[in-house]
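Researcher: Next sequence.
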Amino acid sequence: MEDNNYFAKAKEYHDWIAYRENKSSKYWQQIFPVIEKMVGNIGGEKILDYGCGDGIVANYFAQKGAYVFGVDINKDLIEYAQAHFNLANFEIIEDSDDNLKNINNHFDKILSSVVFQYIENIDSPLGQMHKLLKNNGQLIVAMPHPLKSTENNLVYVNGKWLLQISDYYMNGARERKFGSDHGDKIYHRNFSEIVNMFQRNMFHINEIVETKPSEEDLLIRPERIIDLHRPYAIVIKAEKYCKIY
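Model: Next structure:
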């Protein structure tokens, strides 16, 4: 996993992701319910949370009975997770070649939640995930919708919301934030590149969900009606396959 200033301070990241406690953030209202549904019943399964941050999501699935292994590049986040979560079936370490190189065909599922947009060379982690998963293991990835990560603006014209975008087909770095993060750079990928990056790393895409606010969320936070006109994130469920010669 490549470093980025997004993970500059573990405490700041925790303050963002900890919106789970009041169920208010778009992550917990729109993205996480899709992840949880895709993950399904994981009791007894071996799960890798790739880019686990301060461990809140990984700890949630450990409480559901999975054996969870979390990795992250940021030592501050790792120390935070180790200090706050202490389950026998949850281990968290620093992401490095030394820690992962000897693990093969080990995990039933790998989760990566709002991490891919901070990685420039996406083939490197996808190749690593392919190696770490068991045959037919599942990879679940959440990332910004490609219409969110490109430059865009929502305008109201003649009673309709119109989404203005630019440079959609130009993949690469953007000086842009996603959600409430503290970074200033993400890597935009259009839909073709998102699909192709899974295929060239030998993953078959089983499902793609474009997230949106639920009816319950809109009742509590009616201002989020705007998210029915402007896509926020996508969650992809893919399956490892092996070439047969």
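Model: The mean pLDDT is 85. Residues 174 and 186 are 5 Å apart (CA to CA).
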